[in-house]
Sequence to fold (149 residues):
Amino acid sequence: MNIRTLTVLGVLLAVAGCASTSRVMLGQTRPPTDPALVQIYSTPPPGSQEIAQLESSSAVGFGTQGQTDAAVARLKKEAAALGANGVILMGVGSSGSPVGMSVGAGSYGSHVGGGVGIGIPTTQKRAAGVAIWVPPAERLPVQTITPER
Fold:
């Protein structure tokens, strides 16, 4: 591998770790739950109790549905760690990433290269929600979707 390839790979690996989750506590935590059991709600169910306001972001990419899914999955994982069994989804959006990728030419030692630089715009998907605990009587029934053959 040449130095340029190593540099590009290094930047891609550094950028991949830019996903994050933040929280603001609103209530008491509970014992952790399984993230797979955390349900997404558009409005607060009756009797629900707020635990924390959450915001998450995906890794840097090109604005795919997978990035949106990853940001929502981070919300569910953080909510489960706080003992929530639900998240009221407040919104999902995207923003330009703090790190862009570019491809171009440069020099190394006595070798000088030339060419055209190309900037590749990247984005991060963001999701915001409120982690909640919903009493058993008010929970949505768990739905299983079986693909048809």
Remarks:
- The chain is about 20% helix and 35% strand.
- The longest strand covers residues 86-96.
- Helices lie at 3-16, 65-81.
- The longest helix spans residues 65-81.
